[in-house]
Design a protein that fits this description.
It contains five helices and ten strands, in the order αβββαβββαβββααβ. It is of the alpha+beta class and 210 residues long. The protein has two domains: 47 residues, no CATH class; 157 residues, Alpha-Beta Plaits. The strands form three sheets. Strands 3, 4, 5, 6, 7 and 10 form a six-stranded antiparallel beta sheet that branches.
Amino acid sequence: MVASVYFRKLFMMCILQLKLRLQIYKKQGQGSLVRNELIILKPGENVLKMITAYLGLGTNMGDRAGNLADARKLLDGNLMDIMSVSHVYVSEPWGFDSDHDFLNQVIEVRTKTDAFDLLDIVQEAENKMGRTRMLTAYSDRVIDIDILFYGDEIISSKPLIIPHPLLHKRMFVLQPMADLAPGFVHPVFNRTIAELMEECKDPPLTRFPL
């Protein structure tokens, strides 16, 4: 009887593990890469590996400093914990013309959710803050939240590309990221954030006083 219960629990644990792996594979899609590992804590309990991710926040409409604070509140505790935040920097609009400068910040978060669920959480936060997605690539916005890095993973799929494909060209990402992790190595370019910052053609940014 005891053996029967044990093997039944073991069977259910294997099924749960297989189901989670299939869900991850389905979300990541063919050609992309997500290497989350399942850690067995005790019989019947499976969790995804804790991941450190970096998110870029940007805003150039309304109360910009308030928008950054509101975004952090929506994200913190929503299947992630904010571990550290960069200084806030002022940047000119990148890729389009506008009279309104941006405030930018990078936050470090710890999460057990996979990258695609993290994207859903990020977009839900943007929607709650009134973000409207225009047909043009760049425009004024109340908030913009990008997943810059998800651990050292390389993910290439239709809804999500990680690392962010343009971050190495953007001082408004590199400079605040350097506040938190200047030695972090870009998994595609194999260069640190500090090295990418030195190579970036954008001028250095001014810190926004808070």
